[in-house]
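As a warm-up, study this chain.
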Amino acid sequence: MNVYMCLALCCLPFVLCFVFFKMFSSVKISTELFAGLFGLLAVLPITFLQFLITGVVLKQSISSVSGILPLFLKTVFFNGLIEECVKMMCMLLIPRKKLTFSQFFMAALLCGLCLGCFESVVYFLQYLQSANERGARLLYHLIFARIFSSDIIHTFCAGLCGIFIWSCISKQIDVWALIFAVLSHGIFNFFASFQSNIKWFSVVVILFLFVETRIHYEKNKPAETYKKDPVPAKTSKDVTIESALKDAPAYNPENKGNL
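Now compare it with the structure written out below.
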């Protein structure tokens, strides 16, 4: 097993999106780099808060409670609320003075994707020690599964958080963008934690996240400004009636009987 190949696969989605955004948009490389940097920066407070709350504050209550509802609340709180709120706080550090709405949205996507890719690297390193020949194939499967699941969740949940930040800046607060980001992340992890077929409901969560991101993006996208010229241009006049009258034969009284 090539360890470096696996690490490269974990980081490949971020690299591809980084290049794609630069080639097909006007976002600056510096903005993309800041977005990736602050995505990595979010890992530290997220890990600290989750460890602190799990190991110290809720140690006794979590160990004594089991069931579907506690698991659901745990995933929504730990994976949804903590991760998305910390990620959003780190997004506030992205220089946005000269950014448009679409550029800031792309920066938010890169921030979340960078965090997701780093999380994939951590998962890979955790399972690396116990991997044999069969385990190596399972690790490749794990990497690709995370690319098309967890990476997408981190990316588009961050996009919704970025939309929420922009809505606050424009004083048209879209709180549902943040709520859907938190719930989507938590519910995805809830379904993904099962080993039975119920885990496939996580795919529905991903599709729902796509739709909601599109809806809130269009809702908060600044309207285009159209400038209308009060005096129409000469080339813009309607020549249909004018040309028809011009080509019509002139009236001649002598031809009256021929009509």
